[in-house]
Every structure is written in structure tokens, then in C-alpha cells.
Write a structure and sequence with these properties.
This protein is mostly helical. It has helices spanning 3-9, 16-45, 64-96, 99-114, 123-144, 146-161, 173-194, 203-207.
């Protein structure tokens, strides 16, 4: 669980395993972000009030400096939360001596800890989406390790904070696109590194 994290810390930025785990984390975090935003709209399909918006967001897009600073802040938060999750998983494994029980306890801890972020009249929707989000997070940690978990939480926290500007005439559209472009660039670079100089689609396909 620490191999790619250790390689990154010693400066192996172009290690294919590092790129792979960051890319997997980026995909997992993007899925978590989409689930988070989708949970705002699902209650309205059943006639219930929508979930309260996540606090903050638009003010972070007031300038390019705020955009970069906020993303760096989310990275620090992701590292902290990933290390806590790894510590809890290790602790639960020591106490229970059962991997399945330890993973289940970590999942329950994550759901309970993040329960207070939501303010909704639809408890079933809240619990469902929290479970989906943190099942994804715990799966990334257990299957791919700490670095993938850091990347997943970074993308998730960033997508929580960044308002998605569907109307390009709003004042924050440019900075929102900048933030999303930075996330896309990070994922694209991780994909490039993970290839280890191999062609993306294979030599035979390129020849055809």
C-alpha cells in the first residue's frame, strides 16, 4: 500500500506505478465528485427539497491566485485524510485480525464522520450517496494504496469546491475552467507517465 507513495517521496515522479496510482485515484475521485453533485438533484426527482449546497466555492474563483491556493489547500487536506484512513485501517486490522472486518469498520467510520456535511430532509438519499462515495474511497485505498487514495480525495475535495460553470457567461466561468483544466492536466500527465513510453493504443492499432 505504500510502494508508489514511497517512490513519489524519493523523487521518482516518472515511475509508471506512481502514474498509474495517481490516474486511478483521479478516476475514483472524479466518480466521488459526480456522486456528490448528483446527490443534490436526486431528492427533487421524488418531490423532496434538494440538498443544501456545499459551503464555500464561488469565492475561491475570484482570482487565479485563489484558485491555485485553494487547490493546494485541498491537496494538503487530502494527504491528511488519507493518512488518517490508513492509520485507522491498520488499527482496525490489529484489533480485529480480520481484513474484512477492518475494512467494514473503516467504511462505517468514514460514513459517520462525513454524515454532518449534508443537510437534507431525505435521509435515505443521504445515506445512500455517502455509502457510494466512501465505498469508492475505501476501495481505492485497499486495492491500490495510499497514493491512489490521496489522489482520489484531492480530486473529490476539489470537485466539491469548484462550481461547475455550465453557463460560460457567468463571472467565474473562466477561473472554473482553469481549475478543471488543472485537474485534467494532472490526470493526463499521470496517464502519460503510467504508459512508461509505450504507445497509448498499441503498435498494431497505430499501424492500422
Amino acid at each position: 500500500m505504500l510502494i508508489s507513495w514511497s517512490r513519489l517521496l524519493i523523487g521518482h515522479l516518472r515511475d509508471p506505478l506512481v502514474g498509474r496510482d495517481i490516474l486511478i485515484g483521479a478516476l475514483g475521485g472524479t466518480l466521488m465528485g459526480l456522486l456528490w453533485h448528483l446527490s443534490y438533484f436526486v431528492p427533487t426527482w421524488f418531490g423532496a427539497p434538494s440538498l443544501a449546497a456545499f459551503p464555500g466555492g464561488v469565492e475561491t474563483l475570484s482570482s487565479m491566485r485563489r484558485v491555485v491556493g485553494d487547490l493546494l489547500g485541498r491537496l494538503g487536506e487530502a494527504i491528511q485524510m488519507a493518512l488518517i484512513a490508513l492509520f485507522l485501517l491498520t488499527l482496525y486490522r490489529i484489533l480485529t485480525r480480520k481484513d474484512e472486518i477492518a475494512v467494514s469498520l473503516l467504511l462505517v467510520t468514514q460514513i459517520v464522520f462525513n454524515f454532518w456535511w449534508y443537510q437534507t430532509s431525505s435521509l435515505s438519499v443521504e445515506v445512500t450517496f455517502l455509502a457510494l462515495i466512501w465505498v469508492t474511497s475505501v476501495t481505492v485505498l485497499v486495492r491500490f494504496g495510499l497514493l491512489a487514495q490521496v489522489a482520489a480525495l484531492f480530486f473529490f475535495f476539489a470537485l466539491q469546491r469548484i462550481p461547475i460553470a455550465l453557463d460560460f457567461n457567468v463571472w467565474y466561468a473562466g477561473h472554473a475552467l482553469l481549475a478543471l483544466s488543472m485537474l485534467a492536466f494532472a490526470a493526463a500527465y499521470a496517464f502519460y507517465v503510467s504508459l512508461a513510453a509505450r504507445p497509448a493504443f498499441g503498435g498494431r492499432l497505430l499501424e492500422e
